[in-house]
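Structure request: Aminotransferase class I/II-fold pyridoxal phosphate-dependent enzyme, Deinococcus arenicola.
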Amino acid sequence: MPSHDYDLTTLAARAGEEARPNSSLPLVEPIYQSTVYAFPDLDALDGAMSGAEPAAFYYRNGTPNAASLERALAVLEGTEAALVAASGMAAISAALLGVLKTGDHIITDARVYGVTYALLAEEFPRLGIEVSFVDACDLNEVEAAFRPNTRVVHVESLTNPILTVPDVPALAKLAHERGALLSVDNTFASPAVFRPALHGADLVTHSVSKYLSGHSNAFGGVLCASSELVAVARTRLLRLGGAMSAFDAWMTMQGLKTLGLRMRAHSGNAQAVADVLVNHPRVKAVYHPGLSDHPQFHLAMDLYPNGFGGMLAADIEDAPAFVKALAGRIPLAPSLADVITTLSWPWGTSHRALPEAERRRLGITPGLLRISVGIEDIGDLLGDFEGALE
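Returned structure:
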């Protein structure tokens, strides 16, 4: 307790910062918003700085809330370690820059998220990293793209937005036989429905603002991998300044507690919506792995026995009118994985930066809507969609 002999300015600065009670523990971890930590002596500080003793010391290096989230996500993805970052793109950047250098080559699915596409197509070549875009669902095309300097194959477990399903076990085998790593962005699936590391993936990333947090109120990314790969990526992230905030880590932990329950509801509702839309005359095409005409249907049923998450895409006749008819009930929002159902327009949002010819080649048309199906009552949802189509 500060001495009462101190000036009021000193008391105001120091009062209340004495040791906290330890006779009980909060059921929910507190938010550790402090940007810096104090140490009792030089030995303790040296132990923290060297990594010999686990301890927080500066916000950019990580917070107790970030460390808790990292432990949780490593367990859920079945990896040795995890690293949280300021965004999903920060996590992907740290993961790939941790294993790639000038002169290396990466093979990636051409259907990756638009900003990932831009990172690989525009930024990596500036660093002297060669990139080949392929159809990752065509194993022959992937195999033909390998070079002596290929270090990584990068795919999404379920692609954005038309939900193709790469064969992760086969891709892992192909990469490992050639001395390369497999990187999988698992954002659309979440570990509740698919865990890439258990199928051979070396690097698993997420945008945690999607299913992991689940309520559109937290922002960040995560890499789940071996302790060695995480340590290298952590160094890259530290130098790039991509630390996750304590509050976002704390909020994600709260959402994570209901991930399993939410994903069962998301998956069931998305399947029901897909089954209705695919039979409607105003719907030109529906993309969902649970539909029997999906090109990877049998593979999806094998890899995703517990459902496919809440995502689907549909090419709608007169999409603007459809969106307008849903106004006030289902929001048009350029993100996904909230507990409420939302619509997104990939042509003008997530894939806007791609050339028009490339968007059309990937199946992204002006009428394509990505639907993130929430956990609402399925009867209400189907009523909303059927009413808008009519």
